[in-house]
Design a protein that fits this description.
The protein is α+β, with helices and mostly antiparallel strands. It has a 5-stranded mixed barrel with strand order 4-5-6-8-7. Strands 2-1-3 form a 3-stranded antiparallel sheet, with helices on one face. Strand 5 and strand 6 form a beta hairpin. Helix content is 11%, strand content 26%. The chain has one domain. The longest helix is centred in the first third of the chain and has 17 residues. It has 1 helix and 8 strands. The N and C termini lie far apart (44 Å).
Length: 155
Amino acid sequence: MEYKKETIAIEGSWNMSSWEWKFESIALIRKVFEAMKEGKLIANKCPGCGMVYFMPKPYCRCLSEPDEFVEIKDTATVTTYTFTGSWAYEGISDEEVSGTPLIFAGIVFDGSNTMTVANIEGVEPDQVSVGMRVKLKWPDKVEGTLNDLARCVPL
């Protein structure tokens, strides 16, 4: 593959009305943020197939509209993960390593069927595995934002 230093832009005329569902998603996510301020996690459930979406979605993969909100737990299972930082790569000496490594994980909260992303704290990278159980680390002051969901700790 050839590397190019330039950026290429392609003109387009997309009909933005087809993006209406994005605005519907924002309204659903606001409900989740309000519930978080009360110490709860909620997701929406599809009446057609029973899928539970966290974060909520306006349309299900079966083409039904998930219209029921259900409470889910703040415990989860790691489904995938990756590390950041130079320490993760072989051949880099300890002297070159700097900063705190981050562990990003795809997690599925108990009671939900879909994955979300969080950092895992309080564990060494070699102790992380798919199937690992974690718990949401609620902040001292929940503000009802995505940042409130940013950290998990091992169970």
